[in-house]
Design a protein that fits this description.
Layout: E1 13-15, E2 18-20, E3 27-31, E4 38-43, H1 47-66, H2 69-85, H3 87-98, H4 102-113, H5 115-122, E5 129-130, E6 139-146, E7 149-153, H6 162-173, E8 177-180, H7 187-198, E9 206-208, H8 213-222, E10 226-232, H9 235-245, E11 251-255, E12 260-264, H10 270-282, E13 292-298, H11 302-313, H12 334-349, E14 353-356, E15 371-374, H13 381-384, E16 391-397, H14 400-407, E17 412-413, E18 415-419, H15 423-432, E19 437-440, E20 455-456, E21 459-460, H16 465-470, E22 473-480
Parallel strand pairs: 7-8, 7-10, 8-9, 10-11, 12-13, 12-18, 13-16, 15-16, 18-19
Antiparallel strand pairs: 1-2, 3-4, 5-6, 6-22, 11-21, 14-15, 17-20
Bound molecules: NADP nicotinamide-adenine-dinucleotide phosphate.
Length: 485
C-alpha cells in the first residue's frame, strides 16, 4: 500500500482553513515502523506558526461559540459520518504510521469516532443551575461557557482516538482547537483535519500543526489566549507542560502514564482472567497507558494461569500490521525496543524466569517477542516502570491484603483490574485500589459515555462521560439582586 494512493494522506499543516508548509520550509520525516521505509514528510513548524494558529482559533471562536449547541452538533455528527465513510482508508493510514494490526486500527477509529456524536448530544445538556437562595433579595444562577481556545497535544500510541476524546468535547462546548500530534504519527491528525474541512467546520476552529514539540508546546503554554491545555503523553512531559502553564494559569487535562495491576484471585473465572490479561497486555503490542503492567496472581491458581497464558501468548503472530492474521505489530522505535529489552534483562538478572519470549524477534527491526516472565518481584524495574512493550510480568501473592499493597505500590494511578467472583471482594478492591479506573472481570474501559482518567501522577481531568464536556467549560455565577423590591 502506498501513501500516495490515499486521498486523506496530507503532507501539510491545516491552519486557518488552509494547508500550509512550515515558514522556513523545513520538514520532519515519518517512517513506517514495520519496515523502516520513509512514508513522507510533514512540516517542522515552530513558534511563529503556532502563534498564527492560535490567532486563527481565537478569531474563529467568536462565531463558533455563538452557535447553538444543536448547530455545532451538526458539524460533529458530520465528522462522525465522514470518519465512518472513510474507515478503511483511515485504518490504512493508522497502521502505516503506527504499526498496529489493521483490525486494531479499525477498532481504534470506530471507538474514537464515537466521541463526536456523544459530545454533540451532551453539549445540548450543558445545564446551569438555579440555586436556592439564602437571601430573599437575591437569585443565584449558573451558566456554562466554553473555556476558550484549547491547545491539544497527543501521543503516537493512539494517533487517531486521542484526538476526538479532546477535540470533540472542546468543539461541542464552543471552543476552537490547535492540535499538535506526535511527530512519529502525524498523518491521522492531518486526515482528521481534511475531514473537518469536508464537514464544513469553519476555518480556524480546527487547526493541526506538526513540528518541533518543545517550541510548539512552549508557545501553546505561554500564549494567554490559549485558556486550556489538554495533553496525553508521558508523565515527565506532562509535568513540564503543567509547570509551563502556571504563568498564565491555564486549565489542564493531563492523561499520563500508568502502571496497571491486573489481579487474579483464586476464585476467578480463569479463562476470562487469561483472556483479559492477554487482551490488556498485548493489544497495540503492549503500548497502551492502561496495559496490564503487572499481573498479580494468587498462589492457588498461579501455575495453571501461567500455563494457559503462555500457551496463548505463543500463538500470537508478529509482523506488519497490514498482513492478515498478524496480532503483534512492531514497537514504535529503536529506543522502545532497547527499553523493553533492558527491563527484561534487569528482571532476569534479579531472578525472574522467562516462560516464553524474552528477546528481540527473529523478524528483526522493531519487533520483540511476546514475553511472559514469572517470579517477578517489586525490586525489578519491570514492576516499577511503564513497560510499553509485549512483556507480561507475573507476580505471586497469598492474601487480598498483600495484593492491595503490591497493586498500590506505585506513584501513578490510571487503570487497575480485578478478576474475582466474590461480590464482597469486588467492592473492597474497587474502593481500596488507588487508581482512576477499576475493571472488574473486564479490561476494556474506554467508552464515550464514561469518564476515563487517572489519579496521582497519572494526571487530572476525565475524557468521556458528562465530565469530559465539563473539562472544556467554565461555570459562571450570576447573582441577581433587588428581587424583593
Ligand atoms: P511523550 O513523549 O510525552 O509525547 C507525547 C506528545 O508530547 C507528543 O506529541 C510529543 O511530540 C509531545 N511532546 C514531547 N515533548 C514535548 C514538550 N517538551 N513540549 C510539548 N510537547 C511535547 O509521550 P509518548 O511517548 O509519545 O506517549 C506515551 C506516553 O503516553 C505513555 O506514558 C502513555 O502511558 C501515555 N498515554 C497516556 C494515556 C492516558 O489516557 N492516560 C493515553 C495514551 C498514552 P513529539 O512526538 O513531536 O516529540
Amino acid at each position: 500500500m502506498r501513501p500516495d494512493d490515499l486521498k486523506l494522506w496530507k503532507n501539510h499543516c491545516y491552519i486557518d482553513g488552509m494547508w500550509s508548509p512550515a515558514l522556513n520550509g523545513e520538514t520532519i520525516e515519518v517512517t513506517d515502523p514495520a519496515t523502516g521505509r520513509t512514508l513522507g514528510t510533514v512540516p517542522r513548524c515552530a513558534t511563529k506558526e503556532t502563534s498564527v494558529a492560535v490567532s486563527s482559533a481565537a478569531r474563529a471562536m467568536a462565531a463558533w461559540k455563538a452557535l447553538t449547541a444543536l448547530e455545532r452538533g451538526k458539524y460533529l455528527h458530520r465528522m462522525h459520518g465522514l470518519i465512518m465513510d472513510n474507515l478503511d482508508e483511515l485504518a490504512a493510514i493508522l497502521t502505516l504510521e503506527q504499526g498496529k494490526p489493521l483490525a486494531e486500527s479499525k477498532g481504534e477509529i470506530i471507538q474514537g469516532a464515537s466521541y463526536f456524536p456523544w459530545f454533540a448530544e451532551e453539549a445540548r445538556r450543558a445545564y446551569g443551575q438555579v440555586i436556592p437562595t439564602p437571601d430573599p433579595g437575591k437569585r443565584p444562577i449558573t451558566i456554562r461557557q466554553p473555556v476558550g481556545v484549547v491547545g491539544i497535544i497527543t501521543p503516537w500510541n493512539f494517533p487517531f482516538a486521542m484526538i476526538p476524546r479532546k477535540a470533540a468535547p472542546a468543539l461541542a462546548a464552543g471552543c476552537a482547537v490547535v492540535i499538535k500530534p506526535a511527530s512519529q504519527t502525524p498523518y491521522c491528525a492531518l486526515a482528521m483535519a481534511a475531514l473537518a474541512e469536508e464537514a464544513g467546520v469553519p476555518p480556524g476552529v480546527f487547526n493541526v500543526i506538526t513540528g518541533d514539540s518543545s517550541k510548539i508546546g512552549a508557545e501553546l503554554t505561554a500564549d494567554p489566549r490559549v485558556r486550556k491545555l489538554s495533553f496525553t503523553g508521558s508523565t515527565a512531559v506532562g509535568k513540564k507542560l503543567m509547570a509551563q502553564c502556571a504563568a498564565t494559569m491555564k486549565r489542564l487535562s493531563l492523561e499520563l502514564g500508568g502502571n496497571a495491576p491486573l489481579i487474579v484471585f483464586d476464585d476467578a473465572d480463569l479463562d476470562r482472567a487469561v483472556d483479559g490479561a492477554l487482551g490488556s497486555k498485548f493489544r497495540n503490542c503492549g503500548q497502551t497507558c492502561i496495559c496490564a503492567n503487572r499481573i498479580l496472581v494468587q498462589d492457588g491458581v498461579r501455575d495453571e494461569f501461567l500455563r494457559r497464558l503462555a500457551a496463548k501468548v505463543e500463538m500470537l503472530r508478529a509482523g506488519s500490521g497490514l498482513e492478515a492474521g498478524v496480532t503483534q505489530g512492531p514497537l514504535i522505535d529503536e529506543a522502545a525496543v532497547n527499553h523493553v529489552d533492558a527491563l527484561v534483562r534487569d528482571a532476569v538478572e534479579k531472578g525472574a524466569k522467562v516462560l516464553t519470549g524474552g528477546k528481540r524477534h527473529k523478524l528483526g527491526g522493531l519487533f520483540y517477542e511476546p514475553t511472559v516472565l514469572t517470579d517477578v518481584t517489586p525490586a525489578m524495574r519491570v514492576f516499577k516502570e511503564e513497560i510499553f512493550g509485549p512483556v507480561a510480568p507475573v507476580v505471586g501473592f497469598a492474601s487480598e491484603k498483600e495484593a492491595i499493597a503490591l497493586a498500590n505500590d506505585t506513584e501513578v494511578g490510571l487503570a487497575s483490574y480485578v478478576f474475582t467472583r466474590d461480590l464482597g471482594r469486588t467492592w473492597r478492591m474497587s474502593e481500596t485500589l488507588e487508581f482512576g479506573m477499576v475493571g472488574v472481570n473486564e479490561v476494556l474501559l474506554a467508552m464515550a459515555e464514561a469518564p476515563f482518567g487517572g489519579i496521582k501522577e497519572s494526571g487530572m481531568g476525565r475524557e468521556g462521560g458528562a465530565e469530559g464536556l465539563m473539562d472544556y467549560m467554565d461555570t459562571k455565577l450570576i447573582v441577581m439582586g433587588g428581587i424583593d423590591g
